[in-house]
Design a protein that fits this description.
Length: 461
């Protein structure tokens, strides 16, 4: 038996602990975490305990960890957006192969410097563009590049962000301000732009528009206090009312509404339709409360202690209980990018933060066939190919997976497997970091085009 690839974890938060950490626990023969850097003590201890990391390999920051010299084959960098380029460059220079969360950097110069460093040091840099690793997007790529659609003429791709996810991440949460994070078109759509560039080649030129932000004080309901927990008169009318999202488990119910299980589906529909009765039933029937004991993302992001009392406290004191109209957010909640690609096709990307469901939808029109697709994280993913000449429709159903809203439809797990294999010697397994950079260059250009109201040329043949 070959020994597992070893790695250090930098940033043991949502992604580090919950999305990537479990792979090592489930596949100890493939991957082992041997050190962790995390300033939050509870999170550091939680990760160290799960992976049996001794005290001398637990660090308060990436600087302390990297100062120790190389301790493993790979470094997983899962810190927040603004803290990607610094640790990535340092880790590459220290001799680590790096798995880096997106974005590569929050400025064009930073992103380029990380990729340049990877090439100079000849170390592997795998960017966490997880969608490339899902069966859905692998199939889509195969069909588009097979020539079966004929010559590609136009592509429409939508990133439909469900309304509560928009509020959670981009109004109340970590990605609400570009100075703390980056432009939303990079934060949310680097995956989408990566898929478009993968399928259509480089982008030649683009323009971009966004309407004014919806989540502004002018749009608040009359009398809405700064926090939902301060007695908001719009409590039952507002889709973003925080106790409904984080205590009544609305995210889970949205998933359950499409579950193959009839009872789960009926329960979810009932709860969403009759929130007051459900709340009363839940409070007066503890077994029901326990049965619906969902504690994964986004619940896990508001407090490490996910008990009901701790969650309520987090809403009363922390960022996730704020009224969505009274936050300090500045990123837009809708943006359109119009592009012309290397292959000659034109494309549009729509980022929409007011969707009823979390799903990417797309349409590829070629001279011989039209492809329509929907990727809903393993819930009811489907691709249809409509052949112009025969009128036949091929439908590829991906079934209802167990992935749910987390795991990116299996993409998270496959991404790590690819990294582990690439570190183990199969370099062809991973996409090149130069290729991953393309989506970032498009996103920075789209942000410029939106702000400066102009067409931006990225590349001329
Ligand atoms: N690939 C994807 O599909 C995907 C999905 C969600 C998030 N992300 C990206 O993953 C990254 C992490 O997101 P998250 O939700 O896990 O955030 P998070 O805030 O939960 O985790 C980041 C962690 O980094 C820690 N940290 C802060 N300073 C540090 C330092 N000096 N040294 C080491 N650790 C430090 C924080 O304490 C925190 O625990 C973000 O950049 C985000 O954009 C990617």
């Amino acid at each position: 038996m070959t020994s597992p690839v070893t790695a250090v974890m930098v940033g043991a938060g949502e992604r580090g602990y919950a999305a990537y950490g479990p792979y090592a626990l489930e596949h100890p023969d493939e991957l082992r975490f041997v050190a962790v850097a995390e300033p939050n003590e509870a999170r550091r201890r939680r990760f160290a305990a799960a992976h049996r990391i001794p005290p001398e390999a637990q660090f308060r920051s990436w600087e302390h960890l990297l100062a120790h010299g190389r301790m493993a084959d790979g470094a997983f960098i899962c810190t927040m957006d603004q803290m990607h380029a610094g640790p990535a460059v340092a880790a590459l220079r220290s001799g680590y192969h790096v798995l880096l969360e997106k974005p590569i950097g929050t400025t064009r110069a930073d992103a380029i410097s990380v990729v340049d460093t990877a090439e100079r040091t000849e170390k592997l840099l795998q960017v966490c563009h997880v969608l490339r690793h899902t069966s859905f997007f692998l199939t889509l790529h195969e069909i588009v590049t097979s020539g079966r659609l004929g010559e590609l003429v136009s592509v429409e791709h939508r990133e439909n962000v469900v309304y509560w996810h928009m509020a959670h991440s981009y109004v109340r949460g970590n990605w609400r301000r570009r100075d703390d994070s980056c432009p939303i078109i990079l934060a949310k759509c680097s995956h989408d732009l990566d898929i478009l560039a993968w399928n259509l080649g480089r982008c030649r030129e683009l323009s971009s528009f966004a309407p004014p932000r919806y989540f502004r004080p002018e749009n608040a309901p009359d009398g809405a206090p700064p926090r939902c927990t301060d007695g908001c008169p719009a409590a039952y009318d507002c889709p973003w009312f925080a106790p409904r999202l984080y205590l009544d488990l609305v995210p889970l119910l949205h998933v359950a509404r499409r579950s193959p299980n009839l009872v789960e589906r009926a329960g979810a529909r009932f709860s969403l339709r009759f929130p007051r009765i459900t709340q009363w039933l839940r409070q007066s029937a503890p077994p029901l409360e326990r049965a619906l004991d969902y504690r994964d993302w986004p619940i896990s992001a508001i407090s490490e202690d996910t008990s009901r009392a701790a969650r309520r406290r987090a809403l009363e004191e922390g960022p996730y209980g704020r009224c969505v109209f009274h936050c300090d957010n500045d990123v837009v909640d809708h943006q359109t990018v119009a592009m012309r690609f290397e292959c000659g096709a034109s494309g549009t990307l729509v980022l929409n933060g007011h969707s009823h469901e979390e799903a990417r939808t797309m349409r590829y029109d070629g001279t011989r066939a039209t492809l329509r697709g929907k990727f809903a994280y393993g819930l009811d993913d489907v691709i249809e190919i409509h052949d112009h000449r025969t009128g036949e429709v091929e439908r590829i159903d991906f079934g209802v997976g167990a992935a749910g809203v987390t795991g990116h439809g299996g993409g998270d797990e496959r991404l790590i497997r690819t990294f582990v294999r690439a570190v183990g010697g199969d370099r062809d397994a991973a996409a090149s970091s130069r290729e991953a950079l393309e989506s970032h260059l498009i996103a920075f250009a789209a942000d410029e085009a939106r702000l400066e109201h102009r067409v931006v040329t990225l590349w001329r043949p």
